[in-house]
Design goal:
By secondary structure, the protein is of the alpha+beta class. The protein has 2 domains: 134 residues, Fructose-1,6-Bisphosphatase, Chain A, domain 1; 110 residues, D-Maltodextrin-Binding Protein, domain 2 (3-Layer(aba) Sandwich). It is built from 8 helices and 15 strands. It has an 8-stranded mixed sheet with strand order 4-3-5-6-7-8-9-10, sandwiched between helices. Helix 1 runs antiparallel to helix 2 and helix 5 runs parallel beside helix 6. The chain binds L-MYO-inositol-1-phosphate. The site of L-MYO-inositol-1-phosphate has 11 residues, from strand 5.
Length: 256
């Protein structure tokens, strides 16, 4: 965890500096509605350099550079150097670095850092979840009518728009409020912190969710894919909350 925190904070400080001069950054388009900037690339380079120095041989799954096999087949870093790229490029201070460590296919540590809000989220399997050293618990609200639920809205070039609006309609009618913050890793961290009561999204990537899944679980929350299984990475779908909210949200999404 010390290695992870040091790497994430270094990458986060780099993002902070670039955020101050966001209008001068080089931006390229990966696909419709999907951007990458010099800031993402710089932060990813910092993470890969720091982590390779500290743990030579571990493999990587990184948003910008993809998969690289390590000599150590049991460990893999999962990296999103800048989650919330669109926010970042619009000067919206809701973005962060997300880093998880997988051991034999299981997420064993996760760190998420929002450098603007100076919030550092840390979780280790079996060791609890923390934000700036404060222990986290998911919210205790147990009816959807009291719940604030976060989601992600598909953008240009993303599949399943109709499916999303159907699901949103069902949820809207049941809950106290719906939010769209634009950074999946932070959405998950905010569920762990009890700010959001639940969160669902479809068509996101392992790097958006790996660290956040562990944070939610270690904060006492429940996590599944959109069918109630554990194929979040494979399907890109995720639904989280405390035991009751997670179950009710899943049922509402499915129209039950
Ligand atoms: C983004 C997410 C956002 C989600 C987008 C995208 P990026 O990640 O965190 O909330 O709705 O589809 O995946 O591209 O900024 O790392």
């Amino acid at each position: 965890l010390n290695v992870m925190v040091a790497a994430v904070m270094k990458a986060g400080r780099s993002l902070s500096r670039d955020f101050g001069e966001v209008e001068n950054l080089q931006v390229s388009i990966k696909g419709p509605g999907d951007f990458v900037s010099a800031a993402d690339k710089k932060a990813e380079k910092i993470l890969i350099e720091e982590l390779s120095k500290a743990r030579p041989g571990y493999g990587f799954l990184a948003e910008e550079s993809g998969i690289s096999e390590g000599t150590d087949a049991t460990h893999r870093w999962i990296i999103d150097p800048l989650d919330g790229t669109t926010n970042f490029l619009h000067g919206i201070p809701i973005f962060g670095v997300s880093l998880a460590l997988e051991r034999e296919g299981q997420i064993v540590a996760g760190v998420i850092f929002n450098p603007v809000m100076n919030e550092l989220y840390v979780a280790e399997r079996g060791g609890g979840a923390f934000m700036n050293d404060r222990r986290l618990r998911v919210a205790a609200r147990n009816t959807l009518a009291d719940a604030v639920i976060a989601t992600g809205i598909p953008h240009l070039g993303r599949p399943r728009h109709d499916d999303f609006t159907r699901k949103l309609n069902r949820v809207m009618l049941e809950v106290a409020g719906v939010r769209r913050n634009g950074a999946a890793a932070l959405d998950l961290a905010w569920v762990a912190a009890g700010r959001f009561d639940g969160y669902w999204e479809d068509a996101i990537h392992p790097w958006d969710m790996a660290a956040g899944i562990l944070l939610v679980r270690e904060a006492g929350g429940f996590v599944s894919d959109l069918s109630g299984g554990d194929k979040m990475f494979e399907t890109g779908g995720i639904c989280v909350g405390n035991e009751i909210i997670q179950r009710r949200l899943l049922a509402t999404l499915a129209g039950r």
